[in-house]
């Protein structure tokens, strides 16, 4: 009995994860056998009185009874699983519908899914009865669930709940045992998440010993559309938030991870300054919500990806989040994206289909897959628009998918397959880039709107000439302007700033960061709608390198200038 109490105490109080290496999980399950049957929870409604699920079609009756009450089901609930009280029945049913969407059992867009994720946690915070109900709903949906992707999303939702809403004392043991039991037979990709669920559950159960009046839980969206909560204050910097998330995910290299801000309805992600205080950023998001009605999210992601990278199977979260960041960039590519080879793009689509086959299993035929809302989850819209009339994209993707299934080892881990696709992503023109669609404009007529004066342009050029050409030019350089051009894409990564023609995808200019490069960007800045740069480039009529002023017009021009400065410095280049 003493040994059993000792084992249980360690399992209930670990917050660093040591128990997973030091305690025999199967031995612990024998100790907690009484809590392994969810039907024994005292606040669960009697099976005979529970009304069950709604029907799949209007003339059906819906499933109910002991065989379905605590097992995965894709249909909405008619009523709560637990005795939440008449006033909370509607909220409980809404929460379950949202869970179906978040776990992928109900079709929704990624942004909608992220928003619903937050709503589920908010509902759980409305009262202990609702918190217990949502815990029961999640454990139900994770029981006998045949879809790996749904299971993975479900555990990430459980983690968010464990970080925010503590179950009642009566339910806590059931939740704890459910998580510990899941560790014995879970997929490798879910193991770390489940361990974090147990640690977070112990923290919330222990009470707010380390939480002050100024501390609050801050939600961060990950690139795989899951969430994490960290305890912060208004004066916590965005860099500190990124470090806290890295600590949760056991990511060692914190310097390459940053926060980006994305607003509903806008594809551009804004790189947030590392030194910005969280209180300031939250004030901005509230102002955006008030003025536009659009919600905003803080996304935890890599500062930039680089060609030649390989996903390391030993760093699961690092590799998984890197893959989903690359996937999002690929699907939102604004240019003909893979060296104009649509067949490579079809191969990528087939590999994505293989990785997400549980999600697409009802659409693995050409006719169904040709639906635009499905194809845009596999290929960029820019590539789909380039396909010739009558081209059967669905059939071509399915054909490549079947060939890939025949060639790949089914025992191959998911992260290894992700790496296969990741190597193809690196063929994309805009891989690892921050991008803005805008135009090359003329110099602002109002000089107060300029970022860089003529004198500063000349001084920057002279400084560069002294450093790279052995001396200053004999005469002050004449700074001409890069000719205006509409409908371009500005792309910035660790190595260069490039300008592409939006329609053709052809590079118009490429300016490297390296000192030894002939055509390069020397100095830059942004104000209002204009980013200005001093660039060294060849004239249209002469091969001689000369300084020019480049004016890029875009509502997010200051964001572009900041991203350029951050990537330039992070890569180790010196201005």
CA-CA gap between termini: 68 Å
**Overall pLDDT confidence:** 84
β-strand percent reads: 15-25%
Net shape: elongated
Low-confidence stretches: 15-23, 27-31
DSSP summary: helix tally? 22
- Helix/strand-derived category reads alpha+beta
Give a short account of the largest sheet: 8 strands, mixed
Radius of gyration over C-alpha positions, nearest whole angstrom: 27 Å
Total E-strand runs: 13
Q: How much helicity do the residues have?
A: 40-55%
Properties at a glance:
13 strands; 5-stranded mixed β-sheet; 22 helices; 8-stranded mixed β-sheet; alpha+beta; 575 residues
Descriptive report:
- The protein is elongated.
- Strands 6, 7, 8, 9, 10, 11, 12 and 13 form an eight-stranded mixed β-sheet that branches. A five-stranded mixed β-sheet has the order 2-1-5-3-4, sandwiched between helices.
- By secondary structure, it is an alpha+beta fold.
- It has helices at residues 2-13, 19-22, 25-31, 66-69, 89-102, 110-124, 128-141, 148-164, 169-183, 188-206, 238-249, 278-292, 316-331, 342-355, 357-360, 366-369, 372-375, 381-386, 393-407, 414-425, 454-469, 557-570; strands at residues 216-222, 227-232, 257-263, 270-271, 296-302, 434-440, 480-481, 485-492, 496-501, 507-512, 520-527, 530-539, 542-553.
- It contains 22 helices and 13 strands.
- Helix 3 runs antiparallel to helix 9 (169-183) and helix 6 (110-124) crosses helix 7.
């Amino acid at each position: 009995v003493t040994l059993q109490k000792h084992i249980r105490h360690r399992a209930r109080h670990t917050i660093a994860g040591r128990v997973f290496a030091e305690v025999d999980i199967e031995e612990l399950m024998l100790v907690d056998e009484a809590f392994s049957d969810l039907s024994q929870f005292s606040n669960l409604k009697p099976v005979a009185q529970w009304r069950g699920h709604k029907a799949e079609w209007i003339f059906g009756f819906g499933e109910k009874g002991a065989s379905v009450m605590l097992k995965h089901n894709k249909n909405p609930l008619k009523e709560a699983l637990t005795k939440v009280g008449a006033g909370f029945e509607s909220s409980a049913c809404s929460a379950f519908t949202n869970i179906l969407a978040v776990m992928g059992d109900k079709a929704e867009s990624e942004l909608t899914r992220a928003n619903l994720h937050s709503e589920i946690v908010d509902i759980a915070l409305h009262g202990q009865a609702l918190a217990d109900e949502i815990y029961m709903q999640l454990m139900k949906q994770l029981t006998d669930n045949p879809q790996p992707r749904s299971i993975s999303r479900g555990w990430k939702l459980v983690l968010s709940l464990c970080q925010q809403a503590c179950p009642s004392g009566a339910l806590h043991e059931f939740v704890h045992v459910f998580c510990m039991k899941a560790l014995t037979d879970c997929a490798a990709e879910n193991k770390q998440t489940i361990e974090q669920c147990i640690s977070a559950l112990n923290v919330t159960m222990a009470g707010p010993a380390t939480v002050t009046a100024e501390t609050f839980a801050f939600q961060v969206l990950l690139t795989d559309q899951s969430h994490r909560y960290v305890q912060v204050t208004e004066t916590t910097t965005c860099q500190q938030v990124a470090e806290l998330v890295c600590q949760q995910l056991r990511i060692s290299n914190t310097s390459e991870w940053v926060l980006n801000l994305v607003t509903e309805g806008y594809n551009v992600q804004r790189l947030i300054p590392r030194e910005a205080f969280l209180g300031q950023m939250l004030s901005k998001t509230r102002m955006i919500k008030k003025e536009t009605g659009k919600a905003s999210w803080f996304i935890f992601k890599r500062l930039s990806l680089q060609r030649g990278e390989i996903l390391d199977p030993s760093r699961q979260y690092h590799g998984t989040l890197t893959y989903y960041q690359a996937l999002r960039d690929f699907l939102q590519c604004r240019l003909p994206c893979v060296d104009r080879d649509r067949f490579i793009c079809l191969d990528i689509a087939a590999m994505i289909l293989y990785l997400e086959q549980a999600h697409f299993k009802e659409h693995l035929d050409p006719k169904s897959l040709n639906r635009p809302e499905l194809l845009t989850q596999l290929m960029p819209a820019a590539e789909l628009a380039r396909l010739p009339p009558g081209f059967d994209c669905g059939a071509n993707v399915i054909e490549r998918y079947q060939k890939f299934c025949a060639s790949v080892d089914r025992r191959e881990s998911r992260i290894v397959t992700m790496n296969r696709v990741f190597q193809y992503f690196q063929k994309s023109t805009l891989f690892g880039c921050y991008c803005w669609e805008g135009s090359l404009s003329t110099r602002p007529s109002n000089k107060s709107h300029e970022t860089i004066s003529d004198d500063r342009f000349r001084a920057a050029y002279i400084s560069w000439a002294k450093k790279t050409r052995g001396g200053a030019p004999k005469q002050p350089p004449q700074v001409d302007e890069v000719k205006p051009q509409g409908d371009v894409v500005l792309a910035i990564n660790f190595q260069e700033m490039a300008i592409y023609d939006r329609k053709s995808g052809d590079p118009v200019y490429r300016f490297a960061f390296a000192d030894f490069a002939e055509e390069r960007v020397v100095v830059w800045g942004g104000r209002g709608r204009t980013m200005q740069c001093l660039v060294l480039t060849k004239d249209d009529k002469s091969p001689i390198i000369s300084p020019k002023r480049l004016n890029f017009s875009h509502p997010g021009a200051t964001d572009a200038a900041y991203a350029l400065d951050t990537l330039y410095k992070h890569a180790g280049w010196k201005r």
